[in-house]
Amino acid sequence: MIESKLSKIILAPCVSEKSTAVQVDRQYVFKVRDKARKDEIAKAVKLVFGVDVESVRVCRVKGKKRTFKNIPGKTQNWKKAYVTVKEGQAINLGRA
Question: Which pLDDT value is given to residue 82?
Answer without folding.
Answer: 97
